[in-house]
UniProtKB/TrEMBL annotation:
Signal sequence interval, chain numbering: 1-21
Keywords: ATP-binding, Hydrolase, Membrane, Nucleotide-binding, Signal, Transmembrane, Transmembrane helix
GO annotations of cellular component type: Golgi apparatus; membrane
Protein name: Apyrase
Organism in which the protein naturally occurs: Mesocestoides corti
Binding site for ATP: G200, A201, S202, M203, Q204
Keyword Cytoplasm in record: no
A molecular function (GO) term: ribonucleoside triphosphate phosphatase activity
Xref: Pfam families: GDA1_CD39
Active-site positions on this chain: E170
UniProt keyword Heme, yes or no: no
Length: 632
């Protein structure tokens, strides 16, 4: 039965040999060879986005860069995926951040051919949400992410490719994205455009300035494209000016006003206890404040909010208080702070202006917000492309189809949205089958649209008649995200170019599952009966063994006896008896050839218990006789 076991062992080894994804489509396989891949994970404050980019290896000589595109899946859909919440939300449970990131990266691993994994770089870049955490909190999260990527995947990964990106680089990456997709980096280059980006926690602005312009050196980033053209780009970031962070600061600002100017000032100050650094805010006109008590006797302060539609309510959360380092509470005994919508755009714009910090001293004129220097903008010759919240809010207002931002149109749409009672707006959303998640987002549209107008015109100083701001979601069929600009930036580095020149490891080893099934069927149909028949034959032959160890009147079996094999050789006749062979078993000289055994050391077949092939151990033969049986 040994032969049956051995054949079965080889079959099982074949079945369980790992094999990579099998590409049946030869056209697809040939097209893959012309591309390389790159993975970017944008770990934002409210969620993380996966982007899988395809980089062609052969390009037109008129471009300084290859035409990078988003890869697509088998259905033709872009390989991008967003998950919530943001990576920074794992600050209290950093070990879970590894599983969180792996769930995203596994999508890329599934679609990128296995043979390209070792030459596919992966960059995990976090933004403002992580910037708000302490260094130790960031380090704990990054350690968990690093272990997950190294243990779960075979992608090319370096320590420096996993980082919390500064706001300046985020601004530069956004500027690169827009100009890259507009083909402004061709040779010779076309005039560049400016970039505006607004996320959940921060916002950025970037535009090219003349080399002779008098600009603070730490506000300029120089970018060389294709080793030829260098750009001087003014970049600035404003942490806390993204829509979510600005909304939290706004709610705290209303609370500060109630603490200073409401009839309940002393009660509120005793509950929130202002600390060192607290400054008295300017008084807001017509801020209504009420004090109620819950059924359990807990204090509930109600503040009117002109940036909420009437009928909407909001509350001050612990996440909102992250943006205030001058207030402390009594823990579970702190009162409830509730905001009731009033839906007044004029008042909303006036309330928000203080958050721009235009009153801060300007060290070097001119300044935009928070005392930050901003070099003059050539509004006549510069266009700006605005992405992220500029587009999302325009879409929520219904003004997104327009190619150019118009202050009058945007203002009128915002005013209509703000004054519409929430119950009426909710009915319209449900009639339009808007999903619940987007309905929740639309509750903040009045605030976000007002904030965008304040930032553009009061903050950055864009004239209300300026008509060269373009809210965008995509260009050239590609979603506009700073992640693409980050990839283009990394593509200029020598290590990335070296990675592109590496040949992928051919992982097309083994067989596909369908091939293995076919082999199993063939074995069951032909191999197994043949093996069984041979085993039966051997069993019957063993019954003919003589006591001396040789087969009666026949031969000694090779391998299993100490005579290893038979050799066909010319007949040598001595006194009528052939030489060689087993004694007492002379073979008659009936033809020109006979079989004589060549004595050799016997072989003992040792089976290992592990999942590996058996080995043959050669042992020294005691003699050259045919007696005795080999050991199995």
């Amino acid at each position: 039965m040994l032969c049956c076991f051995f054949v079965l062992y080889l079959l099982l080894t074949f079945i369980y040999t790992p094999s990579v994804a099998y590409v049946a489509d030869s056209h697809r396989a040939s097209s893959q060879a012309a591309y390389r891949y790159a993975i970017i994970v944008d770990a934002g404050s409210s969620g993380s986005r996966l982007f899988v980019y395809c980089i062609p290896l052969i390009e037109s000589t008129t471009r300084s860069l290859p035409s990078v595109t988003l890869c697509t899946d088998d259905k033709g859909e872009p390989l991008t995926k967003k998950v919530n919440p943001g990576l920074s939300s794992f600050s209290s449970d950093p070990s879970s951040s590894g599983v969180y990131i792996s769930s995203l990266v596994s999508i890329a691993a599934k679609h990128i051919p296995k043979k390209y994994h070792s030459v596919t770089p992966i960059y995990i870049l976090a933004t403002a949400g992580m910037r708000l955490l302490s260094e130790s909190q960031q380090s704990d999260i990054w350690n968990a992410v690093r272990e997950a990527i190294k243990n779960d995947f075979d992608f090319k990964f370096e320590e420096s490719w996993m980082q919390t990106v500064s706001g300046y680089y985020e601004a530069l990456y956004g500027w690169i994205t827009v100009n890259y997709l507009l083909d402004n980096f061709v040779d010779p280059p076309k005039p560049s455009v400016g970039m505006l980006d607004m996320g959940g926690a921060s916002m950025q602005i970037a535009y090219e300035v003349p080399s002779e312009a008098q600009v603070l050196e730490d506000h300029i980033m120089r970018f060389t494209i294709g080793g030829k053209n260098t750009y001087n780009v003014y970049v600035m970031t404003f942490l806390g000016y993204g829509t979510h962070a600005a909304k939290s600061r706004y709610k705290l600002f209303l609370l500060h006003n109630a603490m200073e100017y409401s009839p309940y000032s002393s009660i509120l100050k005793s509950r929130f206890r202002p600390s060192t650094g607290y400054t008295k805010p300017p008084k807001l006109p017509e801020l209504g404040v009420q004090l109620l008590y819950t059924t359990s006797g807990k204090e509930k302060f109600i503040l009117t909010d002109p940036c909420l539609q009437s009928g909407l309510e909001d509350v001050l959360t612990s996440q909102d208080r992250v943006f205030s380092r001058t207030l402390s509470t009594g823990g579970t005994n702190s009162p409830i702070i509730t905001f009731i919508g009033a839906g007044n755009l004029t008042q909303c714009l006036a309330y928000q202006k203080f958050l721009l910090q235009k009153h801060k001293p300007c060290r070097i004129e001119p300044c935009s917000m928070n005392g930050v220097h901003q070099p003059p903008v050539d509004f006549e010759g510069t266009q700006f492309y605005a992405m992220s919240e500029y587009w999302y809010t325009s879409s929520d207002l219904g003004t997104a189809p327009a190619d150019v931002y118009s202050f009058d149109s945007f203002y009128n749409s915002t005013e209509n949205m703000c004054k519409k009672p929430w119950i009426d707006a909710l009915f319209e959303y449900r009639t339009q089958n808007v999903d619940p998640f987007n309905i929740v987002n639309k509750q903040a549209v009045c605030f976000k649209a007002s904030w965008i107008m304040n930032v553009l015109h009061t903050g950055f100083g864009f004239s209300q008649s300026y008509s060269n701001v373009h809210p965008i979601d995509s260009l050239s069929g590609i979603e506009v995200q700073w992640s693409l600009g980050a990839l283009v930036y990394y593509m200029q580095l020598p290590e990335f170019q070296a990675l592109l020149s590496q040949e992928p490891v051919d992982a097309q080893i083994g067989f596909s599952d369908s091939q293995k099934v076919a082999v199993i069927i063939l074995f069951l149909a032909f191999g197994c009966p043949t093996a069984v028949g041979y085993c039966v034959y051997r069993k019957r032959r063993r019954q003919q063994f003589s006591p001396g160890g040789c087969l009666g009147g026949s031969f000694c079996p090779p391998i299993f006896t100490r005579s290893k094999c038979f050799w066909r050789s010319p007949k040598v006749v001595t006194s009528g008896v052939t030489t060689g062979g087993c004694k007492n078993n002379p073979r008659a000289a009936g033809n020109n050839y006979h079989y004589s055994m060549i004595p050799s050391p016997s072989a003992v077949l040792n089976f290992r218990t592990s999942n590996s092939l058996p080995s043959f151990q050669i042992i020294q033969a005691n003699d050259n006789k045919c007696s005795g049986h080999g050991t199995i």
